[in-house]
From TrEMBL:
SUPFAM superfamilies: Fibronectin type III. May play a role in the development of the central system. Belongs to the PHYHIP family. Residues 40-149 form the Fibronectin type-III domain. It comes from the Eukaryota. The lineage of its organism: Eukaryota, Metazoa, Chordata, Craniata, Vertebrata. PANTHER family: PHYTANOYL-COA HYDROXYLASE-INTERACTING PROTEIN-LIKE, PROTEIN CBG15099. This is Phytanoyl-CoA 2-hydroxylase interacting protein like. PROSITE patterns: FN3. InterPro entries: FN3_dom, FN3_sf, Ig-like_fold, PHYHIP/PHYHIPL, PHYIP/PHIPL_C.
Length: 364
């Protein structure tokens, strides 16, 4: 059992492994008996959905309504048909709540994850003098999906990332590694301009940019001893390099997108650069914390003696997403002399949910 907050009161949650909501009656527990006289919830409504909470309400007949002392809520992750059938399944969550005025808030990061589909059903109950319950039939089962991280949650991630960002090093270029065929395709089919594509699902599960934001992936980290980009890359042997000022300048906005790791010591920070007023800028403005381009812990752009000077954080790996097309004529494409380290790729990488450095107290 665990305590959590629901409807402003202290509630106990009961986990009943493998128990179907339609079988949670006297045959399952000698302390619970079925009674048709209690009203059955219907017309269930879910509202005010966040990444780790929601409000629930329903209609019910007035008959015997005054006898209701508790609600039983059966909450389950919707089964993924493509999931591995041998993989351990999440234990269903049965919530026991005192009968509070509706709508009732259900909140708990330990059983609700962001951007996840759930099913829910409700039962009314009347606690007897001897401690047993008389219960109604279960309601219909409805489905809903939790939300992405809000700006509040992302700001918490941002603050954790700032702690480990480290000192700032100079940079002069952004770079993007791909296979030769990629650049050939861009020249032949896209008029020499790299096009934004939808971001993959790497990073935090609740990130509002995964699967939604369109952009072009760039790197900007440099080697400490040379001040230049590393010669190795996970993403391909051909590298497009572009002067930093052509992508990042006072005519662009900078946003914090995510902070994560992949079960290793390396930590990644996702930043988004968007030309002011562009569709990408409008998307980010509504969802992501905006950074001061001259003063932040990750990537800065400032003018010194009439020249733009750029710095990046030393102790995190920056993944920069630029939201507009980029013409290859603005930079150069050349083969790297190092290795293609496929094991370091973050494509669709899953975040380590146990890392205390890069997780916050909401669904992972």
């Amino acid at each position: 059992m665990k305590n959590y907050s629901i409807g402003g009161r202290s509630i106990v949650s009961v986990h009943v492994p493998g128990c179907s909501p339609h079988l949670w009656n006297k045959s399952q527990d000698s302390g619970i008996a079925e009674m048709e006289e209690l009203p059955v919830p219907h017309n269930i409504k879910i509202s005010n959905i966040t990444c780790d909470s929601f409000k629930i309400s329903w209609d019910m007949d007035s008959k015997s309504k005054d006898r209701i002392t508790h609600y039983f809520i059966d909450l389950n992750k919707k089964e993924n048909k493509n999931s591995n059938k041998f993989k351990h399944k999440d234990v269903p969550t049965k919530l026991v709540a005192k009968a509070v005025p509706l709508p009732m808030t259900v909140r708990g990061h330990w059983f609700l994850s962001p951007r996840t589909e759930y099913t829910v059903a409700v039962q009314t109950a009347s606690k007897q003098v001897d401690g047993d319950y008389v219960v109604s039939e279960w309601s219909e089962i409805i489905e809903f999906c939790t939300a992405d991280y809000s700006k509040v949650h992302l700001t918490q991630l941002l603050e954790k990332a700032e702690v480990i960002a480290g000192r700032m090093l100079k940079l002069s270029v952004f770079y993007r590694n791909q296979h030769k065929e990629y650049f050939d395709y861009i020249r032949e089919h896209h008029g020499n301009a790299m096009q934004p594509s939808v971001k993959d699902n790497s990073g935090s599960h609740g990130s509002p940019i995964s699967g939604k934001l369109e952009g072009i992936f760039f790197s900007c980290n440099t080697e400490f001893n040379t001040g230049k980009p590393p010669q190795d890359s996970p993403y391909g042997r051909y590298r497009f390099e572009i002067a930093a000022e052509k992508l990042f300048n006072p005519n662009t906005n900078l946003y914090f997108g995510d902070f994560y790791c992949m079960y290793t010591a390396y930590h990644y920070v996702i930043l988004v650069i968007a030309p002011v007023g562009s569709p990408g800028d409008e998307f980010c403005k509504q969802r992501l914390p905006q950074l001061n381009i001259k003063d932040n812990k990750f990537l800065t752009c400032d003018e010194e003696d009439g020249v733009m000077v750029y710095h990046h954080a030393q102790d995190v790996i920056l993944e920069v997403i630029y939201t507009d097309p980029v013409d290859l004529s603005l930079g150069t494409v050349a083969e790297i002399t190092g290795h293609q380290l496929m094991s370091l790729s973050t494509a669709n990488a899953k975040k380590d949910p146990s890392c205390k450095t890069c997780n916050i107290s909401v669904g992972r």
